[in-house]
């Protein structure tokens, strides 16, 4: 049986049943630290070929656009590279395997899968031991494969704090994609942040079965506001529900990039992602012969953060939320028990601190979240 809760953040986009089966995760999700595999030999910059495979278009102003900015940073940092290969809209199917095999046949020394195609990628990894692979939102380490992702739950909690201050009704809305770990973690962190201000706050979610569907996101945002929500959040790659919030006069926060121009009066902030430094560092290590497979969660302030506050956010709200951000950066975790799930069952005991491993693989809703089932 496929456990849909453990699929990639992008793992449902255009996915068939066969695709889902191929992405089933192995037991023993994490390995501690860095793999012990020997490093790959150095490569002269002028001989190096670097490949990037994306799930969507680089013009989406969201997830794929952000990875493309990392590619551009690599080109700037290493202007003598022989070739940088970039393929958009890589499907979750055997076509992904063919795409990455083509990268290898073109002489790629390092390949980034920016949306975790799982076994479709791993088949190529096993057959190309001389190539370094990194899988975004991956869960497996091999001799020549590592993974990386974002600890997005921390800035999401901070934005939730702002929502707790700004919402007059305490009814928050969330435009979700699928019931996957990144969405559970995002909804939970958002409501927990809001409840630190207003313990009675609730979060209604609507899943639209897509990461990029402006029409569906618009409809979901409208429905949430019609149901009394006065603050919208979500994990979309476009601005559909932000535009609805602007039209209806409610607050909204976003994901991936700063797209406040679509709703300047409603925009509160966004979970901002930035892979540029990470990609430059990884390519630099590959060229120098010091790269080895690793597991990396980019932390708040270093790859992921909250965006500059929106123009209409009151100064006292911004100050209160940023005080919480400072505490988190200083080592405090808001994800400490007691934490109950949506049925009222205690999942995290009093004073027990959730690890990043648990946060990365969160697959249940906290008390107060409705509409999202695993």
UniProtKB/TrEMBL annotation:
Keywords noted in UniProt: Lipoprotein, Signal
PROSITE patterns per the UniProt record, alphabetical: TAT
Domain annotation ABC transporter substrate-binding protein PnrA-like: ranges: 50-295
InterPro entries assigned: ABC-Purine-Binding (IPR052910), PnrA-like (IPR003760), TAT_signal (IPR006311)
Gene3D superfamilies the UniProt entry points to: 3.40.50.2300
Signal peptide: 1-37
Top-level taxon of origin: Bacteria
Protein name (record): Basic membrane lipoprotein Med (Substrate-binding protein (PBP1-ABC) superfamily)
């Amino acid at each position: 049986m496929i456990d849909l809760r453990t699929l990639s953040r992008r793992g449902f986009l255009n996915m068939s049943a066969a695709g889902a089966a191929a992405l089933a995760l192995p037991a023993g999700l994490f390995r501690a630290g860095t793999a012990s595999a020997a490093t790959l030999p150095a490569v002269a910059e002028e001989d190096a070929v670097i490949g990037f495979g994306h799930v969507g278009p680089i013009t989406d102003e969201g997830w794929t656009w952000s990875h493309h900015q990392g590619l551009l940073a690599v080109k700037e940092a290493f202007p003598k590279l022989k070739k940088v290969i970039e393929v958009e809209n890589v499907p979750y199917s055997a076509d992904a395997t063919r795409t990455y095999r083509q990268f290898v046949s073109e002489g790629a020394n390092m390949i980034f899968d920016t949306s975790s195609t799982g076994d479709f990628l791993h088949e190529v990894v096993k057959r190309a031991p001389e190539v370094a692979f990194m899988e975004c939102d991956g869960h497996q380490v091999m001799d020549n494969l590592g993974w990386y992702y974002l600890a997005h739950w921390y800035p999401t909690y901070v934005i939730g704090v702002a929502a707790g201050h700004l919402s007059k009704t305490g009814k928050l809305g969330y435009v979700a994609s699928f019931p996957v770990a990144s969405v559970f973690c995002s909804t939970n962190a958002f409501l927990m942040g809001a409840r630190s201000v207003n313990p009675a706050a609730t979060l209604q979610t609507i899943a639209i079965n897509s990461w990029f569907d402006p029409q569906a996101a618009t409809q979901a945002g409208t429905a949430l506001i019609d149901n009394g929500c006065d603050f919208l959040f979500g994990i979309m790659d476009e601005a559909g529900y932000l535009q609805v919030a602007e039209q209806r006069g409610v607050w909204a926060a976003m994901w991936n990039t700063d797209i406040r121009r679509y709703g300047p009066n409603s925009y509160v902030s966004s979970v901002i992602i930035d892979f540029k430094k990470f990609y430059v560092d990884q390519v630099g290590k590959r060229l120098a012969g010091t790269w080895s497979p690793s597991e990396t969660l980019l932390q708040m302030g270093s790859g992921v953060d909250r965006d500059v506050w929106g123009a209409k956010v009151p100064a006292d709200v911004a100050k209160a939320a940023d005080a919480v951000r400072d505490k988190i950066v200083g080592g405090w975790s808001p994800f400490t028990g007691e934490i109950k799930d949506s049925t009222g069952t205690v999942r995290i005991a009093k004073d027990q601190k959730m690890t990043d491993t648990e946060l990365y693989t969160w697959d249940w809703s906290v008390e107060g979240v409705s509409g999202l089932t695993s």
